[in-house]
Amino acid sequence: LLEELRDKLTFAHFHDWTARYPDHLDLEKPYLADQRLDYVRSLRLCEKSASRWCVVMEDDAALCANFVKKFRKYVDRDVFPNASSDGAEDVALDRIAMVKLFNPFNPGVRVRWDEPRTKRQKRLALSWNETHELMLYNDNRAEDWPQTRAIKRRPPVRKIDYRVESVGEWWSVVANAYPSIGLNRTIAFLESEDSRRGRPTDVALCKNFLYKENLTQLGVVPSLANHIGFYSENLNDNWKAKGISTDVRFQLDDGST
């Protein structure tokens, strides 16, 4: 299959990384240790490229239609307006740690109801007999015009308005874009830690790396890439499927060009 893909997709680079790392052969649960070295190898491949960005995705990430055009329109820039944590200052590209292309939002599983209830939301919730969670879901999900007309329930809503904003300390490596201008420091940080410790790469990047280098982490809302699989977490030394992390606002094809 790998050779067949190489023949068909000549513009892509495929690497067979299923083999174990010799330094980790004695580990009972080498997943996180292997993950760290895999991630560094991915970033190093990008380091050799002339591209302005390095996009690293998990194998269960799905990109939206016209991803490249949307990436160039919303993400590929030298300065991000009002992207500081307080939304008051612009942030230059060289102060960006990464841009998260996947931003989870799922009221059924991953509750993120930080938004206060507005008067309008209270009124609509009462008139349509909606729970607060369902009302927030309807208000925040990305709807295209044909879908809205088909529903014939709510007044026509906005077309999808993608925005890039500060997402603080949000852990995830489902689909991240790293500015090439900062790849050296990202790789150096990941290599400064012993991979055998098994510390999750997303925690290291989205928390410790941000604080150490005083960088900003941005995210695209709604997501340009969605998570379509289960995520695992080590609980009491037992690996188990804990739930599904996804973005219910995601539109695979919103009709835009």
Quick synopsis:
This protein is an alpha+beta fold and 257 residues long. The protein is built from eight helices and eleven strands. The radius of gyration is 20 Å and the shape is globular.
How would you describe the overall organization of this protein?
Mean pLDDT is 78; it is low at 109-114 and 144-149. The chain has helices at 2-8, 31-47, 67-75, 119-127, 132-140, 145-151, 183-192, 201-213, and strands at 53-57, 61-63, 79-80, 91-92, 96-100, 163-166, 175-179, 216-221, 225-227, 230-235, 238-244. Strands 1-7-5-8-6 form a 5-stranded mixed beta sheet, with helices on one face. The protein is α+β, with helices and mostly antiparallel strands and 257 residues long. The protein is globular. The chain contains 8 helices and 11 strands. β10 and β11 form a beta hairpin. The relative contact order is 0.22.
Write the layout of secondary structure elements.
Blueprint: H1 2-8, H2 31-47, E1 53-57, E2 61-63, H3 67-75, E3 79-80, E4 91-92, E5 96-100, H4 119-127, H5 132-140, H6 145-151, E6 163-166, E7 175-179, H7 183-192, H8 201-213, E8 216-221, E9 225-227, E10 230-235, E11 238-244
Parallel strand pairs: 5-8
Antiparallel strand pairs: 1-7, 2-9, 3-4, 5-7, 6-8, 10-11
Helix pairs in contact: 2-7
